[in-house]
Amino acid sequence: MLAAAVGAAGLLAASATAATQHQGSARIRALDGNTVRINRFFQDNLRFAPGTITVRSGSRLTFSYGSRQEDPHTITIVPAGRMPKTAGQVFNCRVCQQLATGHLKNPKAPPSDTNTIVHFVLNKGRPGLSTVGDSIAISPQGTHRTISIPVTAPAGTTLHFLCAVHPWMQGTIKVV
Questions:
Q1: Measuring CA to CA, how many Å separate 143 from each of 31, 137, 140, 146?
Q2: Of 7-11, 96-100, 113-117, 123-127, which has the strongest mean pLDDT?
Q3: Which of 7, 37, 100, 130 lies deepest, with the highest CB count within 10 Å?
Q4: Cβ 31 vs Cβ 45: under 8 Å
Q5: How far apart are CA 110 and CA 93, in angstroms?
Q6: pLDDT tens for each residue of 66-114
């Protein structure tokens, strides 16, 4: 959570997006890093890599850390029009609160050391990533540093996603 608090005080980094084609499987990694200009700004570089990915319907998507990190991350499917765009929207992400709280031990309470992620896969539709509200989570503690799930949305679907913990981390899954 420290990264989110520090990021609020500084500038947000724009996610670099790179389109990648994968046949039978795909991988998205959560990357980190910071940039500091003393007396100027602190830039939080948490991002998805790639930011845009193209996958075949039915293929598996693996989500993992790309570096050593202390924060959990999610890939939460969100309607395109509800993706936060401003600093105010990012740091008070209502869609994050609505769609991803089901990951927590107590969905009605804020995340904390005692209210941790206990549900690493949320399916609002059929199993896999297919519709708004589907969400997967990774955590630096325990065995949940990587998760793999099928992308079950039909060909022609575009899924927009964000990290419900760090909503400036955003991306797109194009299903072919």
A1: 19, 12, 8, 8
A2: 123-127
A3: 100
A4: yes
A5: 13
A6: 888 888 999 999 999 999 999 999 999 999 988 888 999 888 887 788 8
Considering only 19-23, 44-48, 112-116, 144-148, which range has the smallest mean pLDDT?
A: 19-23
Q: How far apart are CA 172 and CA 158, in angstroms?
A: 7
Supply angle C-alpha 20, 83, 99, rounded to 5. 100
Q: Is 25 exposed, middle or buried (0-12, 13-18, 19+ CB in 10 A)?
A: middle
**Residue 124, token pair as written in the block:** 């609002």
Classified as helix, coil or strand, 87 is helix
Q: Looking at the whole model, is its pTM more than 0.70?
A: yes
Residue 170, sorted as left (phi over 0), alpha (psi -120 to 50) or beta, turns out to be beta
Instruction: Give residue 82's Cα distance to chain centre.
Output: 15
Structure confidence at residue 21 as a pLDDT band (50, 70, 90):
very low
